[in-house]
Amino acid sequence: MPLLHSIVHRLDPSLDGERLTLTAAPAPAQSDDPVMASLVNTLNDTYNTKAKGWGSFAEEGDQAGPLLAWLRDYMAGTQDFTQLSTAIAERLARELQAQLSVSGYLLLAHIRQGDTETLFIALVHQREGIGINEDHQAVPAAQLNTSQLTLAARINLTQWQSETPGTQYVSFLKDRGGKKLAEGMTVLLGMEEGIDAPHETRTLLKAFSDYVEKEDLDEDASREKTDTLVDYANGQLRRGEPMTLETLSELVDEQQPKAFYEHIRNIDYGLADEIPPDKRTISQFRRFTGRAGGVSISFDSHLLGSSIEYDEGQDRLIIKQVPKQLKEQLAKRKS
C-alpha cells in the first residue's frame, strides 16, 4: 500500500478541560517511512473490520461543508497535504468540542492501491504498556492502540473524481456506542449518508436464499454457493471494498454467471449494483444442514428464530414458511 503522503497531528483537552486543542505537525512523514507505512496498513485493516456508514459529499444545502473545496484545491495542486490535513484537524477539533474523550493522535494518509487513491483519517488513542530497555529491564512504554478505532473515515478519491452517479465513495465508522462521534465525522465530511450497509446486506442474503430455493439445489450445492458468497463478502471486507452484484453472480454460478444477478433484478429487491458488506450480518449467515432417517434438512442460519423455530425441549423444528416446491409435492400426494 504505497503512501503518497501521511501526517500525524495531536488533539488534547485544554487545561480547563472545556475544549480540544490542536498541536499540528509542521511537516508530513517521509513517503518511504516503513514504520509509518506499517501503522497505516494496520489501522486500515482495523477499519475494514468495523461497522461503517456510507455516502457521498453533499454538493449544497445545510449538510455541505468546506472539505469538498479543500479536496478540490489539494487534488488540483493549489493546496499541499500539510495545509489540507491541518484544516481537517482544526475543523474536527471544533466539531467535537463536547467529546473530550476523543483526544489522541489524528493520522491522515493519502494512499494509492493499484489505480485507486484514498484519503484515510483515523484518530488513534495511546495506552500505557510495558517494554524492555537496553539493560533488559521492564520499563513503562507508551503504545498506540491500533485495534480500537472509534473515529475514522475513508474517502475514495478516485471514485469521487469519476463523478459516477450513485457511487458511495465516503465511509465512516458507525459504532453503536459512538453516535456523537459519527455525527461529528459526517459534519466534518459534509456528506449525505446513502446506503444502509446492514439493511442492504440482509436484503442481499434474502435474495440469495430465495435464489437457492427457486433453483431447488441439493444440500451440497447449496452449501457450496453459501460458502462462495460468504468468502467473497469477507474478502471485500478485508479490502475495504463493496460487493459488486455482477461479480458475485459470476462466482455463485460459473455455469450461469448472470443467473443470480438476473434473479435480483427480475424480482426487484431494490439493491444497488455495489453493496458495502456488513461484517456482523455476514458472520451470522451460514447454512444449517442435517440428514438422518431419510430426512434431509438445509436452511440459512438467519432464518432461525423467524420462519424456522427450534424447540429444544421437544426436539423438533417448526417451519412456518414451507417452500413452494415442497408444498406442491405435498398437495399432489394428498390428492
UniProtKB/TrEMBL annotation:
Cytoplasm as UniProt keyword: yes
Calcium among keywords: no
Pfam families, sorted: NA37
GO cellular component: bacterial nucleoid
GO-annotated molecular function: double-stranded DNA binding; single-stranded RNA binding
Keyword line: Cytoplasm
Location of this chain's protein in the cell: Cytoplasm, Nucleoid
Family from the record: Belongs to the YejK family.
Protein name: Nucleoid-associated protein YejK
Organism annotation: Vreelandella nanhaiensis
Gene designation: yejK
